[in-house]
Write a structure and sequence with these properties.
The protein is mainly α. It is built from 15 helices and no strands. Helix 3 crosses helix 14. The longest helix has about 35 residues. It is globular and about 70 Å long.
């Protein structure tokens, strides 16, 4: 029995419009990065120029390479934060999916409530708590709040319920494997596909986070890219030449995200349960 795929002009048009909506800003950043400060506001928006390398050199030389310090900080915040958050999400999601304990429903409902709370609302309370501990204006001020992701726990719980068969867990326990060993050698490989998604979501969220580090940090050498570029943008009011550095910095900051997506996409599989058993 063969099935014929039907083409939908309306759906195709909507997809093309959606793609254009997402890609046009990236195209503008790429083109604007190739312009000099004088050309940025005086030439046609989508007309490229030849000053990309000059802009990169100016950006790299700003305050003895401060931009690359921001890039390194962002990699630390996003890399460590996403890795620890993914591990915590995996443990919490697995426990909620495969263990019965008192208050389980209440804990899960609280996590669901946390998903609905915007992170911006929590920034001020987190600042006050960390200020009492003397941890503001440090790397920990940005890292610690990123370790817990209610949305990541929610996703991990759903994936653990679907991808980790109870029979395999029982067989592992019968063979004498402890809970931690079972989690590390059996559960984590089965949840790999879902955890890659959790890691990517959290990495991108931390990479693009602005409000939390803006509130927590006062030393510009600790800034991530978002806060650093905001400072350059503010300087543009008095030094218009800084606008090209902001646009070029935004372009460079996209490259690691694209590289990460291309690297991790091979782990995504359509049939999550089949992928878990195969792992």
């Amino acid at each position: 029995m063969t099935t014929t795929l039907k083409r939908s002009p309306i759906a195709t048009t909507l997809l093309l419009l959606g793609a254009a909506y997402c890609l046009l800003p990236v195209l503008w950043v790429l083109i604007a990065s190739s312009k000099s400060a004088g050309e940025l506001f005086s030439t046609f928006t989508l007309a490229p120029s030849t000053h990309l390398w000059d802009n990169l050199v100016d950006l790299a030389g700003y305050r003895e390479g401060l931009y690359w310090r921001w890039m390194g900080n962002t990699v630390v915040y996003a890399g460590i934060g996403a890795a620890v958050s993914t591990l915590i999400s995996a443990m919490a999601g697995y426990a909620l999916a495969k263990f019965d304990f008192r208050g389980k429903a209440t804990v899960f409902n609280i996590i669901l409530g946390g998903v609905l709370v915007p992170g911006v609302i929590l920034a001020i309370p987190q600042y006050l708590l960390l200020a009492k501990l003397g941890m503001t204006n440090t790397y920990w001020a940005v890292l610690l709040p990123s370790f817990i992701s209610p949305y990541g726990i929610y996703l991990a719980r759903i994936f653990a319920a679907a991808a980790v068969p109870t029979e395999i867990l029982e067989a592992s326990r019968i063979d004498g494997s402890g809970e931690w060993r079972t989690f590390g050698t059996v559960v984590l490989p089965m949840m790999r596909t879902g955890l890659v998604t959790v890691f990517l979501f959290q990495f991108v969220a931390i990479w693009n986070n602005f409000m939390l580090p803006y509130i927590m940090l006062g030393d510009d050498r600790l800034y991530p890219i978002t806060v650093g570029l905001n400072g350059l943008l503010n300087q543009g009011a008095n030094q218009p030449s800084m606008y090209t550095s902001v646009v070029t910095g935004a372009l460079v900051s996209i490259i690691p995200l694209i590289a990460l997506f291309l690297t991790l996409q091979r782990y995504w599989q359509v049939d999550l349960a089949a992928g878990g058993v195969k792992a």
